[in-house]
Design a protein that fits this description.
This protein has about 190 residues and is mostly helical. It has seven helices and two strands.
């Protein structure tokens, strides 16, 4: 997830080369997401001492950080950045000098990111349950499933602005093919 969000933000930078505040917002968010990802990766790897205590609670003198606080804080920041990244382009889109219809179409394309926010929020209860577990290796699959759904949703949402042209070309070719097929099979009754 830590690489997808900067990818979305760099797409924003490419699409909306508007003003310094927007550009700086993107750069700050990229830095926050990268630092968050590195922190989560490092802390997740060393959350318990010794590291093996994470999956084997029978090791004597083992201890872990408060996993509930860690996972909920990490997920809160994660969901918060999702919301900010989702909402970032809308003021820019609304101020574009294009027709209202085109503006709404653009908002719809970028609005697909709201689905990602929903998935991110739906993932939070699994994080809560996982944070209270006594056996993380056994209770991890549900949270992993939601994380995989979220990652796939990010790929889909990231690809939508670029896929718009592809879908348009496919429908144009399909319409042309159907029209030419109808013309070749039409009968002249005169």
């Amino acid at each position: 997830m830590g690489l997808f969000k900067p990818s979305v933000l760099t797409q924003y930078l490419r699409f909306f080369q508007v003003n310094r505040v927007f550009r700086w917002s993107c750069f700050v968010l990229i830095a926050v997401v990268i630092l968050h990802t590195l922190t989560i990766t490092f802390v997740s790897a060393f959350i318990c001492s010794p590291v093996a205590y994470f999956w084997d609670r029978l090791i004597p003198n083992g201890k872990c950080l408060n996993m509930t606080v860690f996972w909920l804080t990490a997920s809160g920041i994660h969901t918060g950045t999702d919301i900010v990244i989702f909402m970032l382009p809308f003021p820019i889109i609304w101020k574009l000098h294009i027709s209202r219809k085109q503006r709404l179409q653009l908002m719809l394309v970028f609005g697909h990111g709201f689905f990602l926010v929903i998935v991110s929020v739906l993932r939070l209860p699994t994080v809560w349950e996982f944070s209270k577990t006594k056996d993380p290796t056994y209770d991890h699959p549900l949270m992993s499933a939601w994380t995989i759904i979220e990652a796939n949703t990010v790929v889909l949402c990231t690809s939508l602005p670029v896929l718009k042209l592809l879908v348009y070309v496919i429908f144009l070719k399909l319409r042309t093919t159907v029209a030419s097929t109808k013309a070749s099979y039409s009968l002249d009754f005169e």
